[in-house]
Every structure is written in C-alpha cells, then in structure tokens.
Amino acid sequence: MQTIDLRSDTVTRPTDAMREAMLRAPVGDDVYGEDPTVNALQERLAADLGFAAALFVPTGTQSNLLALMSHCERGDEYIVGADAHTYRFEGGGAAVLGSIQPQPIPQEADGTLPLDKVEAAIKPIDPHFARSRLLALENTWHGRPLPFDYLGKARELASRRGLGFHLDGARLFNAAVAYGRPARDVVAGFDSVSVCFSKGLGAPVGSVLLGSTDLIERAKRWRKVAGGGWRQAGMLAAAALHALDHHVARLAEDHARAARLAEGLGTIDGLTVKGCHTNMVFVDVPAARLADLATHTAAHGVRLSIGYLPSIRLVTHLDVDDAAIERTIAAFASFAY
Ligand SMILES: *Cc1c(COP(=O)(O)O)cnc(C)c1O
C-alpha cells in the first residue's frame, strides 16, 4: 500500500524527468558567480517576474531572512502578520540574526493585515522607537490567496509612508493559478519577493529571492555570512528550472483535488470542513479524537500533520493523485468520531 502524505507539499520527491534535468545540468562555482544553471534560473525568474536581479538560496527561511536583513538594519523594525511564516515559523531569525524587531499585526481571516492597524503601528522618527522600515506580506497565506485588490492598497500605504514592501511568496504560483493571472501581476509593486521551489513546484531544495540590483547585492553578502554561499548548486537550479517549465500550470490539478477532498470530507458526520483554499483543506474534529484519528488514517496509509494548527491541514501536491484523494476520504469515513 502506497503511503499518501498530506502533511505538506514539501514532501514531494523529484520526478524522473526532473532527476534527468539535474543530471545533465552544466555547473560551476556559484560563489564565483560561475554556475551557468544557477545564473539561468536567476535571470529567467527575474525577467519573468519583472525584477532586476535574483538570488538562488537553499531555503525559503534563508530567503526571507536575507530580504529582511537587506531592507532593515540593526534597530529597525518590520511590520508583519502575527500569524505570518517569517514571524512565527522561522525561529525568530530576523531578531536573532538581524537585530530587527518584528511588529506583528493580528490578521483577518483572509490573511490581510488591516491597513489602518498597519498605519497606526508605524512609529514616529524619534530615538525612543525602532525605525519602521518594512511591510511584509505573505501570499498565499495558509493556502489563501490575499484579495487581489488588497495588494495594491498595501503597496500604496507602503509607498506613502516610505516603507519597503516584501512578499513571502513561498506559494506565489499557487496564488497566481488561483487568481488566473500571471505571477508577474501578483508581485507587481513589491520591492522584494521570496519564492519556494521545494513546495508545490516539486523541486528537492531551493528558493529564489528577487529584488533590485542593490538589494540582491546586499542579500548576496548576507547569504555568504549565513553560510549559504554554495558551489555547484546548478544541479538544484536545474530542478527549479524544470519545475518552472512543467509544474506551474499543473498546480490547478492540486487545487481541484483539494476541492474534491473537501467535498468528500464534507459528507462525513463528526468532522467539520473549515475551509479549502488552493491546495489546502482544513478540517476540525473533536480535539480528544485527534491522536486516534491520525493513528487510524496512518493504518490506512494516510499521513497527517496534527498539532501545529488548531485544525488538521491536508495539503495536496504532485505526489497525490485522484485515487489517493478517494482513499483519503474513505480512511476518514471509516473512523468513529
Ligand atoms: C515553507 C515556507 C517558507 C520557507 O520554508 P523553508 O522550509 O525554509 O524553505 C516561508 N514562508 C512560507 C509561507 C512557507 O510556507
């Protein structure tokens, strides 16, 4: 019985075609800027998304950290969602490594930071206060594409108040597919964007940070300081290039499968489908039954992640097909809640 792993879209393994592309990739020493495949990836994504420069890095956490450290200096502050990945799930790196103070703002259910609250949080220029320097958004957020018109409004505020504007676009392409718009339109107006290749796009490793030439120069320096200056990384960049060619449009299949999963789970007594957004389904069951449910589904070959969020989060991805969705629904249906 093949295991169906719905814990995250990070669990995908490279396809045979992706491994083939990795094997064939021309490589060089990227610290010298001499890896042709890394350079091709950086140039291509920068051109596609409308930025002057890009930097390939090992993880999304590092990519966000380099962005924060390139926008802000010691004693500066960035304004961020209280439930944003950079604030909650990156070990406090901005503060620990960047001496950057986060100013978290409670988010609405759709993931937006109310702009009046953002504006009220911007500190006056005065030695008593950290200097407010940056507004950071996340899209998608827990699978939700932010309302498209919100992006422009947030941009307007950032510009008017002289803040930099960063996007944690770990799942940018899921958002673009959900909006039915080119990814370029989704990142328009941001000063920097971080994109993950190791989530729904199915690459084993890698994220790209995009920005101006100056910002990326600073980020490159911080990447070296953080120990992220890598050498023949072209084999990994080849996987990301392969993903751009073959795994972007198909994200729509993941979204359709999540919708089918939500529909199937919605017919089961004892559980509540809280939401279905792009490739994520959120389900509530009585808290006392959570651990038993996970044991039960595991016995049916379905792996779940429980404990990080109040709801169970089920994530569809490249390695989850239609049959896996039906098997998952059956596994949930055969549990006594
Ligand atoms: C996964 C993720 C990241 C970065 O994660 P890494 O595991 O460090 O690559 C950043 N932001 C969001 C929203 C994510 O989901």
Automatic annotation (TrEMBL):
**Which sequence ranges form a coiled-coil region, renumbered to this chain?**
none
The cofactors required by this protein are: pyridoxal 5'-phosphate
Q: What is its EC number?
A: 4.1.2.48
One Pfam family name is Beta_elim_lyase
Supply the Gene3D superfamilies for this chain. Aspartate Aminotransferase, domain 1, Type I PLP-dependent aspartate aminotransferase-like (Major domain)
Q: Does the keyword Phosphoprotein apply?
A: no
| Gene Ontology MF, one | lyase activity
- Please list the residue ranges annotated as the Aromatic amino acid beta-eliminating lyase/threonine aldolase domain: 5-286
Q: Does the keyword Lyase apply?
A: yes
Q: What class of enzyme is it?
A: lyase
Q: What UniProt keywords apply to this chain's record, in alphabetical order? A: Lyase, Pyridoxal phosphate
Q: Give the family this protein belongs to, as stated in its UniProt record.
A: Belongs to the threonine aldolase family.
Q: How does it assemble?
A: Homotetramer.
Name of this protein: Low-specificity L-threonine aldolase
* Species of provenance: Luteibacter flocculans
